Structures are given as structure tokens and as C-alpha cells.
Amino acid sequence: MSQKVKDYSQYFIAPDLKAAKKRGKEEIQVLQFEQIPENMRQVGQGKKYLIQTYGCQMNVHDSETIAGILEQMGYTATEEEQEADIILLNTCAIRENAEDKVFGGLGRLKRLKLEKPDLILGVCGCMSQEESVVNRILQSYQHVDLIFGTHNIHRLPYLLQNALFSKEMVVEVWSKEGDVVENMPKVRTDGLRAWVNIMYGCDKFCTYCIVPYTRGKERSRRPEDVLNEIRDLARKGYQEVTLLGQNVNAYGKDFTDINYRFGDLMDDVRKIGIPRVRFTTSHPRDFDDHLIEVLAKRGNLVEHIHLPVQSGSSAVLKMMARKYTREQYLELARKIKQAIPDAVFTTDIIVGFPGETEEQFQETLSLVEEMQYDSAFTFIYSPREGTPAAKMKDDVPMEVKKERLQRLNDLQNEISRKKNEALRGQIVEVLVEGESKKNANVLSGRTRTNKLVNFTGPKHLIGKLVHVRIDEPQTWTLKGVWVDQEQLAQVGV
Ligand code: 5AD
Ligand code: SF4
């Protein structure tokens, strides 16, 4: 960041991609969230906030923390832009189209800011960690009041204070490796399912990925902090927790005083009385035998494994720096299937990585055939400034990439449909989330394997674990009918 820009304001700490890349040996600091300063505790009385969240579950959960901080300052939530006194865009940097949406949103909000000059408009999340983004906002979106990074969330009361009382744009983005901040307030809007961070950051540096730069180094929360949070959620009646991390299998690798890894954590979470435990997202490289052994004990540990493969070609995997081959991935999946025969696998796949050949793409198709995933998130490669892949020569035309994505999706959809078809007539356990979005007479929920089920049944089932017979499987959802206790007893379930 140039000195000229630095002079822009007294409240200006800009992101620095080079600094974000550094990984030192220093111990991870566990900090406690400080009380909201006295003069900020009432600042939001009678005022409203709106957070627009883009990207992954990590961001969704960060938004719950940001909401928690704002509510401690007296703000209340609104869904209406028009009535908001503060609007924060919690952004995602993973692909260009995610970023385009945010810039579109910022452009649109300009009119509102002109109408309502006291509105505080802020940008946070992964995009704010990028130098190019902050520069673009400084140049073209000067109606933004506040930019803060993923490491600065706990600083929000101070930053907001500056934004409210100065007329300058407040920018605070630390490009550090990161700490762990405990006891941040949270507003969980869903009383059934909760996200629980177990670790932050990523040290994998896959060549296409911006996350290690935007989220800092791998650092784990202490086991007792995680377990206490989950126990507390169980006491409050939550039915499901999802353990979150950019790479959950690396949990505990950074502890220097204890030998306690993700398998150990899962084994302890298994003993807590919460009906369902999920985790996301895992990297095949750190998925060890102990973890498989623990997952095979089942109970509340669901038989759903999201295992991003990215490509079926060992040569492409090497260029991606994934640090496993096609064969190693398949071997890992075989081991998991052996231990948990009914495990449902899902994955993430990138097509059109720089230089990907037709043959290499076909290896991805054949891996998908072999793995028989229940579903997959599929993406066209998007160059991210500052990552090694962005500098690689890419001779694959966009048309070809689009066509590959289509072929991959056609194949996966066919497999998904077949997989769901196999559930016809079966009785599955569903956690009922509420009325279906499309039809208030239909209830909707998810199986242990995270499949969406729409079914007919009385409203009092909402919030409960019930049984549903699947009678109309579709490619992405399942339709069925509620099976009550009496009927269940008849069929011997
Ligand atoms: N381009 C396309 N897809 C990407 N992903 C991560 N970085 C990129 C990129 N530069 C995908 C990966 C990852 C998922 C969350 O997003 O498949 O697993
Ligand atoms: Fe997007 Fe990755 Fe940041 Fe999540 S961690 S918001 S996917 S860039």
C-alpha cells in the first residue's frame, strides 16, 4: 500500500498480501473479548443493523458474531435496507463472481447513502483482506464508511466509534497470522442447528486459493473451549452442531503442550448429548486413521463426509499443490467406506484449472464415476490475484471450461438422481427445520446425510427428529410422508 494512500486518514490500516502470506513459529495467542467500552454500550439504542452475508459457513458464523457485538451496543436487526442505520457486507473472495456481487451491492447502496447520509455502510470479510479490493473501494466507492478485516471483528466497537464520530473512511485490516479470540458474543438465529468454530485459518496454500491469505494461519481453539460451547448448546436444546474450520482435519496440529487432534475432539464431542454432529470442511491430506475409527463409532457423528477432491488428475492435483494423488484420494475413500459402509460422500471440484487438458478433465469424470458422490459443488477455476495459479499460463478457452462444467454437472446430476432413487420407499430420520420455503403446507428438514426432505406432516413436528418415508426422490431433494410412532412400530423400525 503506498504512502499516499496511508495518509488518507488517521484511521487507516490497509491489507498487505505479502504480510498475510507469512507463517512464523510464534505461539498462538488466545485472547478474551473485551467488554464493549462504556460510551458505546447505548450507541445503537433505537437503531437498526443489517448484515448481508456472502460465501461460506465461516462467514455465516462470523456474521452471527458481528450481530452479537452490535446487539451488545443496543442495535436491533432488520431485513430492510431502507430502515437500517448500519449495513455491513460480509464478503467472500473465493471467486470473481462472488466479488462482483459485492461491488454490485455497493453500487446499488450508493443511492441509499445519499438519501441517508448518517447511514454507516461497511465492508468486512474476506474481500477486505485484499489490497486490490480496498484500493478499488477507496477510488470508486467513497460512500463506504468502514472496512475491517477477518482478524479485526473483535475491534468492531472501536471501529464503529471512529466511523460514527469521524467523517473519514475508517479502514482497519490486519494482515497478521491471527489469534484466537474467545467469548465473543453471538446471535444464533436458528435455535436448532449451530455452527461452532474449532479452528481458524489455513496453511495449505493450494495454488488457486485465496483463503490462506484472507484468514491467516491454522490455529485451533482449545478443546475445553470448544467442548464447553457444545455442551452449552446441548443444554439450550440445539439438535445439531457443525464444527467449522477451513481444514478441520488439521485441528490440534498447532498445540505445543498437548497431543490432541481432530479424532480426539470428535471422540469427546460424541459423548455430548447433542443428536447430530457434522464437520466442514476437510482436506484429504490430514484425514487420519484415528479419525476414521472415531467416525465409525457413529452415534451422533453423522455418516456424511464432505471430502473436496478438486480434480481427478494427479498432474493437475500437483499443480494445485493439493499434496495427494488421485490414487491416494481413492485409497482414503476406500478406507472410510470400509469403516462406514453407508457413508455418503460429497465433494468440491474445479474445472478448467490453467492448462487442464481434455484427458485430465476426463480423469475427473472417471473419478466422479468411481466415487459415486451423492452431490458435488462444481466450479470453473477463477484466477485470484496474488495466488501462484494466477501467474500460470492458461490456454484453456472459457468456452471449453464452460462446456466441461456442463459435462461434469450432467454426469453428477445423473449420479445424484440414481443415489436418491435408491432411497425410494425407505424410512429416514429427518430433523424438521420448518415449513418449506415454497409451500407452507409442507414441512422441510434434513437427513443425517444432509439431504433436503420435503414432507407432509403436522406443524408440531417442527424442531423435532422424526421419521419420513421417501416416496418421491428427485435429483436435489426428496419428497415423503411422515411416519408416526405407531406406524414405525408396525414396520419394526
Ligand atoms: N476458483 C474456483 N474455485 C475455487 N475454489 C477455491 N478457490 C477457487 C478458485 N480460485 C473452490 C474449491 C473449494 C471451494 C470452497 O471453492 O473447490 O473447495
Ligand atoms: Fe469465501 Fe473462503 Fe472467505 Fe469463506 S473463507 S468467505 S469461501 S473466501
Automatic annotation (TrEMBL):
Oligomeric form and interacting partners: Monomer.
Catalytic activity: N(6)-dimethylallyladenosine(37) in tRNA + (sulfur carrier)-SH + AH2 + 2 S-adenosyl-L-methionine = 2-methylsulfanyl-N(6)-dimethylallyladenosine(37) in tRNA + (sulfur carrier)-H + 5'-deoxyadenosine + L-methionine + A + S-adenosyl-L-homocysteine + 2 H(+)
Protein name in the entry: tRNA-2-methylthio-N(6)-dimethylallyladenosine synthase
Domain of life: Bacteria
Xref: CDD domains: Radical_SAM
Locations listed in the record: Cytoplasm
TRAM domain segment(s): 421-484
Residues involved in [4Fe-4S] cluster 1 binding: C56, C92, C126
Membership in a protein family: Belongs to the methylthiotransferase family. MiaB subfamily.
Function: Catalyzes the methylthiolation of N6-(dimethylallyl)adenosine (i(6)A), leading to the formation of 2-methylthio-N6-(dimethylallyl)adenosine (ms(2)i(6)A) at position 37 in tRNAs that read codons beginning with uridine.
GO cellular component annotations of the record: cytosol
Higher taxonomy: Bacteria, Bacillati, Bacillota, Bacilli, Bacillales
PROSITE patterns found in the cross-reference section: MTTASE_N (PS51449), MTTASE_RADICAL (PS01278), RADICAL_SAM (PS51918), TRAM (PS50926)
Manner of cofactor binding, per the entry note: Binds 2 [4Fe-4S] clusters. One cluster is coordinated with 3 cysteines and an exchangeable S-adenosyl-L-methionine.
